[in-house]
Specification:
By secondary structure, the chain is mainly alpha-helical. It contains 9 helices and 2 strands; from the N terminus they run αββαααααααα. It has one domain.
């Protein structure tokens, strides 16, 4: 892997935080993010499809039991949070939760495993956690933003949605202020969704990378050649394990927050009380 010869720690950190790009500028593709996201999406869709295909009315297997538990959990959340009628919301919530969870879970894979494998396959860089790429989180949130507009138009109609934008919350006489506030509120929803997921996962990944630099450049024989190296190695293992245990809570929590806020935003968009 490439590294900065003058400052190997900086080179190591930069390497792990750099995407493998094809193209330039606006049309540049982050191939590592696309590959990881696509593979995880196929993994999710394939395993759940197999569970549905092999489902039995008798005693379910462990995987069918797990899938049914997840479906019931998400279906219950949708019924509690989304008050209109739509056949899309529950599948959408399931897809968001599992897909974001799997992408977040990549943060728990040992930091050098996949980049080393990718380097052997010809990738100079390979950033393995898609949500640490702002393009991923903004892409997801833009999809949510478009659905907010769609559901607002679907349940309120074009005229009803326009009246809400111009008349809520202060009445039509204050339509300039109403319009400005509603535009800010509508844009703030996807932006906050994106930045929250990106910020949490990027910070977590950065801490894992920093912990990995504690023994950077130290060979296996050297690790046990002195008390200082042994202490450094033990400290690295302890801190990494501690952070990984804490991060086990962050991985599903961030997926849950993204999912539940999406349901709430779409529920708000479908309300006709205004």
């Amino acid at each position: 892997m490439s590294a900065n010869s003058e400052n190997p720690v900086t080179g190591y950190i930069d390497h792990h935080l750099t995407n493998f790009e094809v193209g330039e500028g606006f049309w540049a593709l982050h191939v590592d993010t696309l590959i990881t996201s696509f593979v995880l999406g196929i993994l999710f869709a394939g395993t759940f499809w197999l569970a549905a295909r092999k489902a039995t009315a008798g005693v379910p297997g462990s995987w069918q039991n797990f899938v049914e538990m997840v479906l019931e959990f998400i279906d219950g959340l949708v019924k509690e949070s989304f008050h209109a009628k739509s056949n899309l919301i529950a599948p959408l919530a399931l897809t968001i939760f599992i897909w974001v969870f799997l992408m977040n879970f990549m943060d728990l894979v040992p930091i050098d495993w996949l980049p080393t494998l990718a380097y052997a396959l010809g990738f100079e860089y390979f950033k393995v956690v898609p949500p640490t790429n702002m393009n991923t989180t903004f892409g997801l949130s833009i999809g949510v933003f478009l659905l907010i507009i769609f559901y607002s138009l679907k349940f309120k109609g074009g005229l009803g949605y326009l009246k809400e934008l111009l008349g809520h919350p202060f009445g039509l006489w204050f339509f300039p202020a109403n319009l400005a506030l509603n535009i800010i509120e509508t844009l703030a929803k996807p932006i906050s969704l994106s930045l929250r997921l990106f910020g949490n996962l990027y910070a977590a990944e950065l801490i894992f990378v920093l912990l990995a630099t504690m023994t950077l450049g130290v060979t296996a024989p050297e690790l046990f050649s002195s008390a200082g190296n042994i202490a450094m190695f033990v400290g690295q293992v302890f801190l990494t394990t501690l952070w990984a245990i804490f991060h086990i809570l962050v991985v599903p929590l961030q997926a849950f927050i993204f999912m539940i806020l999406t349901i709430i935003y779409l529920s708000m968009a479908s309300e006709t009380d205004h």
